[in-house]
Structure formats: C-alpha cells, structure tokens
Amino acid sequence: MSTIEAGASRSVDPAAVEYVFEPHAVELPPIKPYLQELWDRRRFVKASARAEIQGKRSSTIAGQFWAVLDPLFTAAIYFFLIQILRGGQGGRGSSYQMTLLISGIFLFQFTRTSLNEGARSVVGGRGLLLNSAFPRALLPITSVYKGLLELAPAGAVYLVIHIAFGRPIGSGIAFLPLLLVLHTALNLGLALLFAALTVFMRDVTQLMQYLLRVLFFVTPVLYPVSFLPPAVRTGMAFNPLFPVFVAYQAVIGGGVPTNLQLVGALFWAAVFLVVGGGLFLSHERAFALHV
Amino acid sequence: MNELSPSTSDRDVAAEPVAISVENVSASYQVRKEVRLTTSLRAGFRNMLEGASSARLIPALRGVSVTVPKGSVLGVLGRNGAGKSTLLRVIAGIIPPAEGRVVVRGEISALLSAGIGFNRQLTGRSNIELGALAMGFPDERVNELTDSVAEFAQLGEYLDFPMRTYSTGMSTRLGFALATHLDPEVLLVDEALAGGDSKFKQRVAEKMDELCSSGRTIVVVTHAMRQLKMMASKCLWLHQGKVIDYGTPEEVIKQYLRFCRLEASSEDLDEE
Fold it and tell me: Does ipTM surpass 0.85 in this model?
C-alpha cells in the first residue's frame, strides 16, 4: 500500500492508495513524488491553457485567427511608430532595429503573460482550489504554458518579418532553444513567486502592472543593448531579464550569445526557480485557507 | 443527546476495513476584515491599519473524530456554519487540519458546494476535461468520460456552449455527473442532492444506490432527511464545529429535528 503524505496522487491500483492529511507545516513536500504528480497531470496544463485561449476568443468573429492577428497588429503599430519617429527615413540600420524591436516585444509579451496571469493564477483558481486536491503549482505552470502557446504564432509572424527585411540567420540560431528554455524557467520561477505572494497579499496584483512596466523599459526590448552606456550596462546585472534578452538580441542580429550572457540567464532562472518554487511549494497547503 | 467520539464507540465498524478515519481533527480559517474605501485620507489610513490587524482565526472544526467503514454511507447533518463543508474539505485533503489526523484509503472524488471548480467562461466539455485531469484521471479515458457525463447530465448540444449560458440546474447536473463518473473509491458530496428537477433527483438516487452497492464509500452532506434515512448507514450531527451526535440515521435525525424545533421555538419566545 502506498502512502501519500498530505497530497493527492494516483497509483495504478486505486484501492491501494492511502492519503494521510496532517497539520500544515511550512516545509517542502517530497520533491520527487511532487514532480511525478505534476507530470501525471501534464495534460491538465495543455488542456487548461488551450481552453483559456479558446474561451477568450470564442465569441469573436476572427476566432483563432487572433492568434496571428494579435502579433501582426502589434508589429504593424511599432513599424509605423518607428517610421514616424525617424521622419520616414529608413537608413541602413533601421531593418536591424526594427527586427530587434518586434522580436523583443513578442518575447517580452511571454514574460508579461507569465507574470500577470501567473500572479493571479492561484487566487483566480479559487473554485478549483476549494474543490479538488491537486498540486497547486499546476496553476502558475498553466499561465506560463499559455504564454508559450501565444509566443508560437508570434514567432511565425516574426520569422516572416525577419526574412522580409532581408536579415541574416546566423549560427546563433542553434542557441534559440536553449534561450527559450532558460527564459521559460525564469518566467516560471517568477510566476511561482508572485502567485504565492498574491495569496497572502492581494496588493501584489496591483503592483504587478508597475513592475512589468519598469521591467519593459529597463530590459533591452525597445532598444539595442549597444545604446546603453557601459556604466548602465553594469547596473543591469541586477535585472533578471537582462542576460536572456541581450542573448536574444545577439541571435536576432545574426551573432552568437556570449558565455557570460548564457551563464547570467542560467543564474537568474535557477535563482527564481529555487526561491519562487521553494516559497510556493512550502506554503501551497495553506492556500485554500487564504483564497 | 450525547457528545461522543464515534471512532471509539462504534463497535459495528471495528470488523469492517476502514476507508476514512478522522482523528480528533480541528480546523480553522483565517479571515480578514475588508478594507473600506473612503475619500478621507485619515480614515483611509485608519482602515488600512485596521484591515492589516484584523486577521482572525475562525474555528470551523473542534476535535472531530469519526470512522467510516469501506462501502458505507455517512450522512452529515448540521445547520449552516456547523463545519460540514469544512469536514469534507479536510477529508479531501483540500484544507489541512490545524490539529489531528485524517487517513483516507482509496481515490477521492469531491463534489462540494461550488461544483468542481467550474470556469463559467469555458464550455461544459472543457470543464469536464479539466475537472477530470486535475483529479489525475487517466488521459486516454477522458473522452469516454466526457460522453458518459454529458449523457447523464442531459446537456445535449449545450456540452459545447460556455457554462455561463447554463441554468443552475444544468450546472448542478453536470457537477453531480462528473463527481460520480470519476469512478472514485471515496465520494464526498455536499448539498448536491437538493438541486435539479424531480426526474434528475430520481437519476441521482439510482446512481447513489449503484455506487453504494458497488462498495464505494460515501460521505454526504444534505438537508434532504428522507434521502438520508434511505441511503445513510450512519449519521453525524455537527454543531459549531463539534460532534453533537452520531448513530443510526433515524436516531440522529430525530435528535437533530427536535433540536431545530427547540431552537425555533426559543427564537419565537425571544421575538415575543
């Protein structure tokens, strides 16, 4: 007979499962069984993220075409904005900056969705939380996965723009999957951290919009990193999004990310996964008492 | 009326394998006063400080013990705020006990008062899928489950409509159908028997009979005394988080109704 301490899991033989629920202590659950439970419920993450995206667009006429229309319109707006700011003057560097800007906005949107929706995921999932026992980390994971799903069509739109502008595709493209993994891990760590904080302090959801706005401007999204004076660039070491976005810019420009950028991205992803994951998992049993 | 610890007093139960064991469980919720909005800065600060210092622990269960043998039905009675739903949530592992211990043998499916956490913006189909997947239901059987739940709940073409378009009865039917079709070893039902029309109530009664006869363990919270008398093996009466009585449905319901009448008449006297 398998015994599961303070959780809900499923074994092959349901009758052999035994659950033991004892007073909540602020401590991490056994990590391996917890990860196994998350893995067993991976289809929940996929189905929930897809259903949310579909639900949001189900009453619109364009329906699922919005998945492509959204990034297309965003790109068009920034294209015209840049044209106006430059007084209609293109110039040699403009296509480079345009691709950096559009890719940066799409990639930052992934972080925005992960943090905004991730922070609200537990409080917003009150109905499910109070009626089912399941590993609560599924909720912020779903928000990050939703951001990733929305990034896919944006990526396709960007590829067309990249080619249309005649930008080169360098060997740095091989680093893109690694950068996406590090970016996703960082977003997940941040989503877990803010989801847990929101349960105990609802003000976090109000503060989130300002935090995201600050991050948007202090991260190289609207400008190439080369625009920043060296002193400012050193200060940016404290911005967790900085290394991964600078590495993206290197790849978009046809180059290769430096080791420092990759190590920096890995460092921040690990820090937030450990801090955010630790805070979330050690407090998740008490969430139902506070939502 | 006697206050007792059912787990030690119920001798019939000792021979049966135990499905649920609730041992001296207490549970509390933390509540906080809502911060009132005001146009005055001074009152605003005062409200903010009051809100921050107003956290209170509200005891919902106090030293509750009960044992439910495998394949039996426990009915839980009590007035609003007695701790009935909290007891179900503690058994389901949703709320941790503040004291004591709960042991449950077998898979649990909970149908609690708010449904299975339905997202009303999503379709009935999506909600069935998500409810089942969150409970760890095997992927490959989700489609089959969706069909049988939709058929039982008689949703028809509404299965692919957002749940915000459903009537209360349709949501209730869907919640009950989902909880009972997840094939649980232990089923926790809260007030679900009261919803739906007479035809659906008949189907509910049949489904509950089927689950009882197939050896499932059920804990049901309801005010439907007649149904409780028919299906429950034992009844537990909770009042202000404490066990007041435990025994056969006839005995406990009789005591409970006498208490309700006494309380009603004392309220009448107060009013006079």
Answer: no
